[in-house]
Amino acid sequence: MPKGFSLPQCRAVITGASSGLGAEFARQLAPVAEALVLVARRAEALEKVKQELSATPARLLCCVADLSTDAGRDEVSAFLAAHGVKPNLLINNAGMGDYGSFASSSVEKTRTQIELNITALTLLTHALLPQLQTPGGILNVSSLASTLPMPDLAVYAASKAYVTSFSEALAIELAPRGITVSCVCPGPTPTNFSQTAKRADDGDTNRDGQALLRIPPSQVVREALGALQAGRACVFPGVGVSIAGRVFRLMPRGIMRWALRRRSGKE
Ligand SMILES: NC(=O)c1ccc[n+]([C@@H]2O[C@H](COP(=O)([O-])OP(=O)(O)OC[C@H]3O[C@@H](n4cnc5c(N)ncnc54)[C@H](OP(=O)(O)O)[C@@H]3O)[C@@H](O)[C@H]2O)c1
What we know:
Strand order of the largest sheet: 3-2-1-4-5-6-7
Oligomer: single chain
Bound molecules: NADP nicotinamide-adenine-dinucleotide phosphate
Strand content: 5-15%
CATH topology: Rossmann fold
């Protein structure tokens, strides 16, 4: 097993740091980090996180960028160069979902979802790799949804399957370069995620059984950072999610589809 990434004095880029898990990554890293670059679209929300952490020793910088666009992604590299930050940790956390059937989804929201969850994560990693200082770390935020096809959340689950697969491949590819790659697969976590994923018609997902899996953002982030430090390629935080992740990964696909058809009432 690779040695893992050491957090003290890290210089981290955290995407989606204006709320939810991203803001929590900033909270848990700020007491030990040398510098944190907080990336998201909402300048005010980023400033609020920065203010909250102003008593910590970390140098805190806010980079306002829309990562669903090429211009926004380029902005991150330009920002790092302009502020003389040489990162050794990239946390690809920004992401979004869309509750409802694929047939009735808006093309715009589907496109943004793919751009953010897949393209931004991939191209930001590609852009920052040449300047990532070693020993270095990459922590990708995937989802328990990556382990199963999810009717009424189809594009999201497929995008997270990409994130987990990509991360596990990079973990092997980059280990000889001294870069630890981990991905975290959270279950349902109370953040702004559901609010963003809901549609104007207020459609929602089937939440049966979710209460058993739900853990606070602080625990998700603690376990994710623990996995990165331990050099573990993939972590399912919380006991319930850890069991569910193992079961879903081992379950025959035919049985999985049968169970999903029954759950979604399409049988
Ligand atoms: N919460 C859950 O139940 C859950 C479960 C599994 C996995 N996850 C994953 O956890 C990650 C974080 O989500 P969260 O739960 O913390 O949700 P959240 O509270 O909605 O946070 C999403 C973050 O992404 C940023 N973001 C959204 N669109 C962006 C864009 N175009 N460019 C740049 N930043 C953008 C948002 O900031 P701005 O709006 O300011 O841009 C925000 O900081 C996501 O990858 C999500 O898929 C969440």
